[in-house]
Design brief:
The chain is α+β, with helices and mostly antiparallel strands. It has 2 domains: 61 residues; 80 residues, Glutaredoxin (3-Layer(aba) Sandwich). Helix content is 47%, strand content 13%. Helix 1 packs parallel to helix 3 and helix 6 runs parallel beside helix 7. It starts with 6 loop residues before the first helix and ends with a helix.
């Protein structure tokens, strides 16, 4: 999101997104996804605009936006690393991979490095259970993740 965008400009764009998608059956999730696609996160004030357009309470919209881990409420880093935290990945060494990622990046889950280069997020199944542990880097799946591959991946996104 550009710092120069005003609350009014954000509200106008969110209203347009709502108008485009409100005719869908169950439009809330598609609207939230489109808002996040536009800014990389759900900007302050967007939930109220969505609630008003869909005739829902802000609490209902906030409940949905906060329930799903994929929705961000702050701008992400230039790169997003998602590490699978599901049982199959944990059984194949995912905890050690996750701990190494946090240690190497110096951040915890859903945090961004101080230089804004990387955001680290937990994800609860990428569908690669047979190739565990798994991760996703900027939307690209990475299977059979090990310490060396993780180190190369982190070095690549930080350069």
């Amino acid at each position: 999101m550009s710092l120069s965008q005003t609350v009014e400009e954000i509200s106008t764009r969110v209203t347009a997104i709502c108008d485009d998608l409100a005719g869908l059956e169950g439009p809330l999730l598609p609207i939230l996804h489109e808002v996040q696609e536009t800014w990389g996160f759900i900007p302050e004030g967007a939930l109220q605009t969505i609630a008003k357009k869909l005739n829902l309470s802000r609490a209902e919209v906030h409940g949905v936006a906060s329930f799903y881990h994929d929705f961000r409420h702050n701008a992400p880093g230039r790169h997003v690393i998602k590490i699978c935290r599901a049982e199959a990945c944990q059984a194949m060494g995912g905890d050690a991979i996750a701990n190494q990622a946090q240690r190497k990046l110096g951040i915890g889950w859903s945090e961004t490095t101080p230089d804004q280069s990387v955001t680290l997020e937990p994800v609860y199944c990428l569908g690669l259970c047979a190739c565990a542990p798994a991760a996703m880097v900027d939307g690209k799946l990475v299977a059979r993740l090990d310490n060396d591959r993780l180190d190369r991946m982190i070095k690549e996104v930080r350069s």
